[in-house]
Amino acid sequence: MAKVYTPKYSEYGAFELKIRYQRNMLLGVLFSAMLVVVFVGGAYIYKAITAEDYSDVPVQIIKTIADLGPPPTVAKKPPTIKIDQPQLAAPKVGIPKPVADEDVIDQDVVIASRQELAEIVAPDVASSDLDQGSNVVVDIPDDAYLPAPDEFVPVEIPAEMIYEEVPEYPRLAKQANMEAVVWVKALVDKNGNVVKAMVFKSSGSKAGFDEAAVAAAYKCKFKPAIQNGRPVAVWVAYQVEFTLTGGN
């Protein structure tokens, strides 16, 4: 005899599924719509709570391109440093005091001309004043100004040597048959005399050539240099040769 299998629970077939399909579909759609409403409503509520009030912000209405103004610059500006300015006391305002008439400054002031100022600073000494025996003494030294050794003095005619003193040959150098060349730099005054002398380029030895050349320089004579038709003091450089064949 065959045994019949009876399930513990009743099984669903196609018929039962079709009966519950519409109900499940409706429940799913309603649940999804509820979630959308909850999310959208929550977003609007959050936005309303956190929104700022811009009612007091001025609004500029732009009607033309000219209202836009110039474009912002692209150049980098240096950072500005804020410096606290000292608080200055407010000026005191008072009532002006009356001044006596003799203390009032004259407004009609005459400004002296350039010529009048020159006469005040350095009055002109006329020849008639000298003839009348006035006590006018003019004492201006001829060599009131002497140029420095490295100072350039422009001249029209340079100084020219008219007499060269032969220096004394050093005794030890002569015994040792030594020869040398020394360059001397001398300051020639307006009269052609040498007032200062120095070694411009040494002989390179300590046999006494430099000292002998400088000592002889003070005895040399020059024609003074001419500038604007007048003699001027200038520095000149010349060469002194110490040779045994020259009879020194």
What report would you give on this structure?
The protein has 248 residues and is α+β, with helices and mostly antiparallel strands. Among the domains are: 10-43; 160-246, TolA/TonB C-terminal domain. The protein has 5 helices and 7 strands, in the order αααβαββαββββ. The chain has helices at residues 14-50, 114-121, 127-131, 171-175, 209-217, and strands at 160-163, 180-188, 194-201, 221-223, 225-227, 230-232, 234-242. The strands form 3 sheets. A 3-stranded antiparallel sheet has the order 3-2-7, with helices on one face. A hairpin with a 2-residue loop joins β5 and β6 (230-232). The radius of gyration is 57 Å and the shape is elongated. The protein starts with 13 loop residues before the first helix and ends in a 6-residue tail after the last strand.
